[in-house]
Amino acid sequence: MVLRGDPALERTELARERTVLAWQRNRLSELTVLLGITGVGIVVSRFYPEYLFLGGSVVFLALLGMAYTAYHYL
């Protein structure tokens, strides 16, 4: 039986909140990395026309990764 003010219940709630915050930080980190990769692909496509297909592929894969990450965490 769990009563209000129970220290074990409070620790459980705090642990749950920390877990949620950690997941949010991880999601932000993953999306930041994927956004950076997208930028690299755009720069490669724009300034190195001979690597247009490579840059487009990098952008596509990074956007696919962002979509998967957003879907996975929502």
How would you summarize this macromolecular structure in one to three sentences?
By secondary structure, this protein is mainly α. It has two helices and no strands.
Structure description:
The protein has a domain at 27-74. The protein is rod-shaped and about 65 Å long. The chain is mainly α and 74 residues long. The protein has 2 helices and no strands.
Q: In total, how many beta strands?
A: 0
Spell the H/E element sequence: HH
Q: What's the helix count?
A: 2
Structural class comes to: mainly alpha
Averaged pLDDT? 87
Instruction: Return residue spans where pLDDT drops below 50 for at least 5 consecutive residues.
Output: none
Q: How far is the N terminus from the C terminus?
A: 33 Å
Helix content, binned percent: over 70%
Fraction of residues in β-strands? under 5%
Question: What's the multimeric state?
Answer: single chain
The major pleated sheet works out as: none
> How would you describe the shape?
rod-shaped
Gyration radius (Cα, Å) is: 20 Å
